[in-house]
Design goal:
CATH architecture of chain B: 3-Layer(aba) Sandwich
CATH superfamily of the largest domain in chain A: F0F1 ATP synthase delta/epsilon subunit, N-terminal
Helix content of chain A: 25-40%
Strand order of the largest sheet of chain B: 3-2-1-4-5
Number of helices of chain A: 3
CATH class of chain B: Alpha Beta
Oligomer: heterodimer
Distance between the termini of chain B: 29 Å
Largest interface: A-B, 24 and 32 residues
Strand content of chain B: 5-15%
Largest sheet of chain B: 5 strands, mixed
Radius of gyration of chain A: 16 Å
Number of strands of chain A: 8
Structural class of chain A: alpha+beta
Order of helices and strands of chain B: HEHEHEHEEHHEH
CATH superfamily of chain B: ATP synthase, F1 complex, gamma subunit
Number of domains of chain A: 2
Structural class of chain B: alpha/beta
Distance between the termini of chain A: 26 Å
CATH class of the largest domain in chain A: Mainly Beta
Number of strands of chain B: 6
Radius of gyration of chain B: 29 Å
Number of domains of chain B: 1
Chain lengths: 133, 301
């Protein structure tokens, strides 16, 4: 299994964060996690907020991903997101602060209940990933 | 002696200015490379989004998205003018402002009111100076904004457009063509022009080929193509605006580089000229003094 690899690109508008071979990739789909192995059928999906986990020969790497899209085509997985951070780069204190702020948001401040939920979920995911790193 | 000394002091001042402009030229060159790198970094994202977009449309997604529909009853357009925060970059800001003024004039002739949004101090200062009302001035953006800083601007415009406030949203910025050529451009951000659909119906060889090639791929869609397209459209708008910002930053640095280069050249020339004038003045002074002494000697005889 170890040499059964797919290629994974993690692309944001500011930079290309990942461009490497992986044995397994898990991405946060809009309605749950997606796992990718080699030869997965072509897929286009919307992403939610959460953790991208990639298993490579050098070990496992984790990223925080905030929405976007993923495209799986001929053993290449392209993850397109507006915002991504490597788990190790997330500052735990700032993640805590963000969660505290999100939780204290009122619905009228956030614009809508969904927006508030999203802010809370984003902050929770960011915090969880930073403490797992 | 007074004249020669004055010339010498002037020459020193010119040399100091030359040092400054030369440094600014070097800084602009470094920034230019940096901003060009950023623009290149943004390319993969843009291309992939376009690819995904094409795949989704090829799968037969066709939506009535509010960003696609025209607002024909509304007679109000928003323009976003991208200028620089600092001057000393030649005609860069002047050219953009001229393009913006032309746009406003064209609109008023067509009976459309224009709301002006500006980015950069130079633009807002100008419009305030001529007494034009600014709808909003996006200050506090760094010289080279990142995507997450540009995104709220795009979201704001999309919200306004969907609410039917505007018939169109345009961006006036300096388009970067090559290192030697940048032109002020007015790009229509909203409504989204349905290019991909046009290509399909027009059936151009390349367009048809690309469409059929991507159609061969049987994607799993999650959620369905319709919903995906609805999500993708705002992203294309954001990325489009982000590219305009990138172009503007690159063009600004090129403009400053060119302006500072000609300033340095002009200073060199002036310093040379002043050097000649100084030598001449000194020589004539020496001659006058010598003549004085010789006159004195003659008188004593």
């Amino acid at each position: 299994m170890a040499n059964e690899k797919l290629h994974c690109n993690l692309i944001t508008p500011d930079a290309q964060l990942l461009d490497c071979a992986a044995t397994f990739v898990a991405i946060p789909g809009h309605d749950g996690q997606f796992g990718f192995l080699k030869n997965r059928a072509p897929l286009l999906c919307k992403l939610g907020v959460g953790e991208l986990r990639i298993d490579t020969d050098d070990g496992t790497r984790r990223y925080f991903v905030d929405g976007g899209f993923a495209q799986m085509l001929s053993n290449t997985l392209n993850v397109l997101t507006e915002r991504a951070e490597a788990a190790g780069d997330i500052d735990i204190a700032s993640a805590d602060e963000e969660l505290r702020k999100a939780l204290s948001l009122t619905v009228s401040e956030a614009g809508s209940a969904e927006a508030r939920d999203l802010a809370v979920r984003r902050a929770r995911a960011r915090k969880r990933i930073s403490s797992n790193a | 002696m007074a004249k020669a000394r004055a010339i010498d002091e002037r020459r020193k001042a010119v040399n100091n200015i030359k040092k400054i402009t030369r440094t600014m030229q070097l800084i602009a060159t470094a920034r230019y490379q940096q901003s060009l790198g950023r623009a290149v970094n943004a390319k993969p994202y843009t291309e992939k989004i376009a690819e995904v977009m094409a795949d989704v449309t090829a799968a037969g997604a066709d939506v009535k998205h509010p960003l696609l529909k025209q607002n024909p009853d509304v007679k109000r357009e928003a323009i976003l003018v991208l200028t620089s925060n600092r001057g000393l970059c030649g005609g860069y800001n002047a050219n953009i402002i001229r393009a913006a003024r032309n746009k406003i004039k064209d609109n008023s002739e067509a009976g459309i009111e224009t709301d002006i949004y500006t980015v950069g101090k130079k633009g807002s200062t100008y419009f305030r100076f001529v007494g034009q009302e600014l709808k909003k001035d996006f200050t506090g953006l760094p010289d080279a904004p990142e995507f997450l800083q540009v995104e709220p601007i795009a979201t704001g415009f999309m919200d306004d457009y969907e609410a039917g406030v505007y018939s169109a949203v345009s961006i006036v910025y300096m388009k970067y063509l090559t290192a030697a050529r940048q032109v002020p451009d007015c790009l229509k951000l909203l409504p989204i022009e349905q290019e991909s659909k046009g290509d399909h119906s027009a059936g151009t060889p390349e367009g048809a080929g690309a469409a059929s090639a991507s159609r061969q791929v049987q994607y799993d869609f999650s959620p369905d193509p319709q919903a995906l397209l609805t999500e993708l459209l705002p992203v294309t708008v954001k990325i489009c605006l982000f590219q305009c910002f990138n172009d503007a930053v690159v063009s600004e640095n090129v403009a400053r580089m060119v302006a500072m280069k000609s300033a340095t050249d002009a200073a060199s020339e002036m310093s040379k000229l002043l050097g000649q004038q100084f030598n001449r003045a000194r020589q004539s002074q020496i001659t006058t003094e010598l003549l004085d002494i010789m006159g004195g000697v003659e008188a004593l005889k």
